[in-house]
Amino acid sequence: MSDPVPSSDSRPAAADRRSPDRVVVRLSVNGTRYEVAVRPSDVLLDTLREGLRLTGTTRGCDMGTCGCCTVHLDGVATLSCLTLTVLAEGKEIRTIEGLTPRGPGLHPVQRAYHERGGSQCGYCTPGFVMTTSALLGKVPNPTDREVRRAVSGNLCRCTGYVKILEAVHEAAAELSDPSKPGGAGSGSANSEPGVD
Ligand code: FES
Ligand code: FES
Fold it and tell me: Does any ligand 1 atom lie closer than 6 A to the CB of residue 79?
């Protein structure tokens, strides 16, 4: 995979023009537009990690069973290891690096995972956080059943799931409380649509 080209430079990279097996796709990732040359068979996880150097999205199983690689496509939690990069063109892609676009500091979902002990080694955490934030964008106050269903595709080998479930409910409470820093009406609450 060749280096990405900022979209302000409309020329494909020279390496792209020399590579007949590649196509140039235009991606919008965390609000930044890129042109990147990929093979038609390349998956979004590889493009993000190796092409755009966005390594916060982790690779677990590489076959759709662990949830580590979850990102948002138009606000919907999506497994990037199963998504062809060419099919992500025209969609708004958000990764864990772009969850707090307004500046430094943790998103309320990240903070809840941290404070509730919902993360230990952290390898699965970006996927859980992206799944959670997509859920809360669609269902601000989910039931325990809805939370369990939403994160059922995310696997964690460290924490058990009690603290993770607590973290999701704590984040939901904060995001829906206008008096909290990340709460509704504060301007930093999750405003994206949610999971399927
Ligand atoms: S790496 Fe994508 S689901 Fe496991
Ligand atoms: S915190 Fe280690 S795998 Fe989930």
Answer: yes
Judge whether 5-98 and 99-196 match in fold: no
How much is the average pLDDT of 132-161? 97
Q: Is 124 in the pocket of ligand 1 (CB under 6 A)?
A: no
Nearest atom within ligand 2 for CA of residue 157:
3
In this predicted structure, the answer to whether residue 37 has a pLDDT above a threshold of 80 is: yes
Question: Regarding the domain delimited by 5-98, which CATH topology (the fold level of the hierarchy) does it fall under?
Answer: Ubiquitin-like (UB roll) (3.10.20)
Q: Is the CB of 48 under 6 A from ligand 1?
A: no
Average pLDDT over residues 169-177: 94
Backbone φ and ψ of 96, nearest 5°: -60, -30
- Whether 156 lines ligand 2, by a CB cut-off of 6 Å, is yes
The predicted-structure confidence for 89-132, as pLDDT tens digits, reads as follows 999 999 999 998 666 789 999 999 999 999 999 999 999 999 99
Q: What's the CATH superfamily of 99-196?
A: [2Fe-2S]-binding domain (1.10.150.120)
Give the pTM.
Answer: 0.86
Q: Where are the domains of the chain?
A: 5-98, 99-196
